[in-house]
Write a structure and sequence with these properties.
This protein has 245 residues and is α/β, with parallel strands linked by helices. Helix content is 42%, strand content 16%. The protein has eight helices and eight strands. The chain has a six-stranded mixed sheet.
């Protein structure tokens, strides 16, 4: 089989609400333009666009890869700021469909997240709830936003290793330690800090590495336009709460 080259594994479409801005047909056109034989859409917390994406990609000869960026209840010690967990309140875990059973399991997990999470929290599942629902799914550890990354950033390497081994048991032969590299900013600093430890853990436990990055926009112009729209929406919501409109 020829080398497929580069394949995006963390694309967020417009169905990643308030995050992504790539429309399905636009994504497929970009894949054809750049010669990508396949692409994964891993929208945040939902599978709203998976059927539309799969059909559009298949029609153009692109292999659709279905996945989801799940929110997972924090495992191990949690760093708190003013009594609350720092960050979004949950960890990332990327689940990618490998088989039909995997698709059914992913649908079940997403449904659990929405139906069983307490009000006011991000729809999420616990590590324990993953048990029995992992067949046919490939798991990426989530980079600095994942539980393993968070624990490493907090100086909790033993707990990070414990979580990694739990995930390895849940996804035997299907767990990948995820590395991400941004050019600048706080997230780049975090990635630089934990990358050597992630590589060390992967080699120690004979787990494969995968390099990824989130893709939210088709072009830099789209990124700027979406940022402006998001800021305007937040300002309007604040105005309405304050009784100004």
């Amino acid at each position: 089989m020829p080398d497929p080259g580069f394949i995006h594994l963390r694309v967020h479409s417009a169905y990643s609400l308030s995050e992504g801005a790539i429309k399905t047909k636009e994504l497929v056109k970009l894949c054809k333009k750049h010669g990508f034989p396949a692409v994964a859409v891993t929208d945040t917390g939902n599978l709203f666009g998976c059927l539309e994406f799969a059909m559009a990609a298949a029609d153009e000869g692109i292999q659709p890869i279905i996945g989801c960026q799940m929110w997972v209840t924090p495992y191990g010690p949690v760093k708190k700021v003013q009594g609350r967990m720092a960050g979004p309140g949950a960890d990332q875990l990327i689940l990618i469909v490998q088989t039909e059973q995997g698709y059914r399991n992913l649908m079940s997990l997403v449904s659990k997240a929405y139906l069983e999470t307490e009000p006011g929290l991000l729809p999420q599942v616990s590590v324990e709830q993953l048990e029995g629902c992992t067949d046919g799914l490939i798991c990426l550890t989530g980079g600095p936003g994942g539980g393993v990354g968070r624990l490493l950033l907090d100086g909790q390497k033993p707990h990070a290793e414990e979580l990694l081994l739990k995930l390895a048991g849940l996804f035997p032969g299907r767990l990948y330690v995820e590395l991400m590299r941004h050019v600048e900013g706080p997230i780049a600093t975090a990635e630089d800090r934990i990358e050597p430890e992630l590589i060390d853990l992967a080699y120690r436990h004979e787990l494969p590495l995968v390099a990824t990055n989130d893709a939210y926009f088709a072009t830099p112009t789209c990124s700027r336009r979406t940022t402006c729209c998001s800021a305007s929406r937040k300002a309007l919501m604040w105005c309405r709460r304050s009784g100004g409109g």
